[in-house]
Amino acid sequence: SVYLPHIAIDLVIFGFHESQLKILLLEYQNTNLFALPAGFVKIDEDLNKAAHRSLTERTGLHDLYLEQYYVFG
């Protein structure tokens, strides 16, 4: 496998729309179930690269400012 076993990341993307704070959620293929953008960490990448890659793969967004606030173990 190219991914680290049992290691995943979840991204909380904040934004503003019409003066309201919003959080980006993704719908699972027309299931009416929503979740944060997430992904797995590859063996050869750090958490920051994994976060940027996962965000782009899940949303198509890129070049966003990301900051790590906390790591849970």
Describe it for me?
This protein is an alpha+beta fold and 73 residues long. Helices cover 18% and strands 34% of the residues. The strands form three sheets. The chain has a two-stranded antiparallel ribbon with strand order 1-6. Strands 2-3 form a two-stranded antiparallel ribbon. A hairpin with a 6-residue loop joins strand 4 and strand 5. The longest helix is centred in the C-terminal third of the chain and has 13 residues. The two termini are 21 Å apart.
Looking at this protein, list some descriptive labels.
two-stranded antiparallel sheet; alpha+beta; two-stranded antiparallel ribbon; 73 residues; 34% strand
Oligomer: single chain
Number of helices: 1
Radius of gyration: 13 Å
Strand content: 25-35%
> What series of H and E elements makes up the topology?
EEEEEEH
Present the secondary structure layout.
Elements lengths: L2 E8 L3 E4 L2 E4 L2 E2 L6 E2 L2 E5 L4 H13 L14
Antiparallel strand pairs: 1-6, 2-3, 4-5
Q: What is this entry, summarized?
A:
With 73 residues, the protein is of the alpha+beta class. Helices cover 18% and strands 34% of the residues. The mean pLDDT is 93.
